[in-house]
Amino acid sequence: MSNERYLRGWEQLMQVDGEGGERVIESLKDIAPDLGKYVVEFAFGDIYARKGLDLKQRQLVTISALTTQGGCEPQLNVHINAALNVGLSSNEIIEAIMHCVPYTGFPRVLNAVFVAKQVFEERTHQQ
Amino acid sequence: MSNERYLRGWEQLMQVDGEGGERVIESLKDIAPDLGKYVVEFAFGDIYARKGLDLKQRQLVTISALTTQGGCEPQLNVHINAALNVGLSSNEIIEAIMHCVPYTGFPRVLNAVFVAKQVFEERTHQQ
Amino acid sequence: MSNERYLRGWEQLMQVDGEGGERVIESLKDIAPDLGKYVVEFAFGDIYARKGLDLKQRQLVTISALTTQGGCEPQLNVHINAALNVGLSSNEIIEAIMHCVPYTGFPRVLNAVFVAKQVFEERTHQQ
Amino acid sequence: MSNERYLRGWEQLMQVDGEGGERVIESLKDIAPDLGKYVVEFAFGDIYARKGLDLKQRQLVTISALTTQGGCEPQLNVHINAALNVGLSSNEIIEAIMHCVPYTGFPRVLNAVFVAKQVFEERTHQQ
Amino acid sequence: MSNERYLRGWEQLMQVDGEGGERVIESLKDIAPDLGKYVVEFAFGDIYARKGLDLKQRQLVTISALTTQGGCEPQLNVHINAALNVGLSSNEIIEAIMHCVPYTGFPRVLNAVFVAKQVFEERTHQQ
Amino acid sequence: MSNERYLRGWEQLMQVDGEGGERVIESLKDIAPDLGKYVVEFAFGDIYARKGLDLKQRQLVTISALTTQGGCEPQLNVHINAALNVGLSSNEIIEAIMHCVPYTGFPRVLNAVFVAKQVFEERTHQQ
Lengths: 127, 127, 127, 127, 127, 127
Hints:
6 copies of one chain form a homohexamer. With about 130 residues, chain A is mainly alpha-helical. Chain A has 2 domains: about 1-50, no CATH class; about 55-125, AhpD-like. Chain A is built from 8 helices and no strands. In chain A, helix 1 (about 5-15) packs across helix 3 (about 35-50), helix 4 packs antiparallel against helix 5 and helix 4 (about 55-70) crosses helix 8. The interface of D and F includes residues 101 and 105 of D.
């Protein structure tokens, strides 16, 4: 795909999600390629590329939404990596997840924190 | 109540939620006063008072969590007011809610935006 | 309807939900009568009539599930009345709702407590 | 807006949601106009315009998703009207909502059925 | 069990879920046999056996509800198989899941699509 | 930590969750130690230590909330063990989970029952 929204979206995806996001789009190619197209064009080309909030603020929102949803651990893995990619510290990420406790309770927050623990360990071993 | 966590929490509550939060605690006094105590002591005295994220960042998280939960329009009303109180602009609030679309879909985001619309109108009329 | 499961269910419905439950079944008659039939036969005839837990324990489960779901305030109204009908005290009902805070957060618990407040006021005025 | 995706989306929106959808987009103009743009371009221009499922099948999916989400009664109102617009009968709509009982329980199904009841009454009075 | 609702339900279960559903009922026998009985009698004997929607339409509803709920991947596996059993194509199944994006966001849809991918691969290897 | 709420909470945690809870707090020490502190102080020191409901009633509420939430299987594992610890029978636990079917549907109840099956098997092998 090479239209304008896709190109803008792909640029955002690489800047935010990096390889994690690229792998998700790749894994969709043989099952639902248009779904990957919409992730790139809409989630990244339309939403992430917007002004008004910077990428660190957007990652706080994404992480909070995924933590609160529950059952989205694969996406939390990609987006906790993304949060580190855009410059949030591991401490800020943990704080954001913990801040969800009064709003969604401890179980979903615990499950998100354990994903963060795994992400931080994976990134440490890659260095 | 005058213990240290309650006092710290009440100070945070007034700084963040202001009158909206005070009304919630007041409305609990004849039905579940300890619940109000826990909101003040835990949500505000323990969580909101933490370092690591500033109040504007914490309001982005809260608004995202409430938008994603759905069915929490009363709390969204309090916390959109709170977001303005701590210095987020109405534009930043709308951007945060809109950023939730790829993660929780349009319906919950629409319902949150309509709460924001109502809050902004109420605050305009109060001026 | 007069089959055995319906009769057993109707007896449970009247014992637990009382008039509140009767009104729900009635309100379904012109839009989805079979839905009302399933509520009576399955929810009450099969599930509520089971041994193993008594009706007070079953109401604790129902209230917890409805509180956690969110957005089920009409059903919470019926079932908080039902909890009082089967002998739980208003204090036990509030305690059960509050016990959900660590598991589903404050917003859903607050919304459930406000339904309880309304139910207790309505029942007081009926006396 | 007059780009190709918006035009295709607006055509789908009018065919499916009709006036109900137009009102939603209109109500967003002073608070989050881009959100309305995304509903038209993405929800309708990208998703609803796809081949593979016809509009009646798509409305079954939408109604099921909204019923299961809970707390999306405003959107259910628009989409139950839409279901009638694209040729589903009121009976098929009620059957779809009822089919959700084993998957999301009675409360969310009851709340959706009561929205349907209201929609059918409104449409009867308009004739 | 051999009562009328159970027999009707078992027939529906075999027609829709096939072996996948049989395995679920079997796995419940030593832990909660009555739960299996209710799945057969109520979900299949009462709901699936209803007129008004055909089995392909009912599978669209079930798949949409399970996708939107999140965290129900085991049940999605059974019901995506069931969708193929009753004559929906793999393309129609993917379209139904994708149609949920505007209503529940990308994460839950991605998780459902990956279950579909696995189901299609398993069925290919069985041929 | 040795303040009064923490000590009271730790005592409750050991009485209710036992080793399962201790392992959760331990696993948080290197990633989010304050989160573990809040679980002990607030969930157990404030909520579980309350009068009004006994520990068996509280476990019925917790299990119902976790079943209804979905996606909280790790926490259900800890709390089904806890339910046995405080004196609920395995039959009462299964009844409570099954009682959630009319309120949250079969999928979440099935997923909770399979966690119970695993817990009961683990405890049998430990004897």
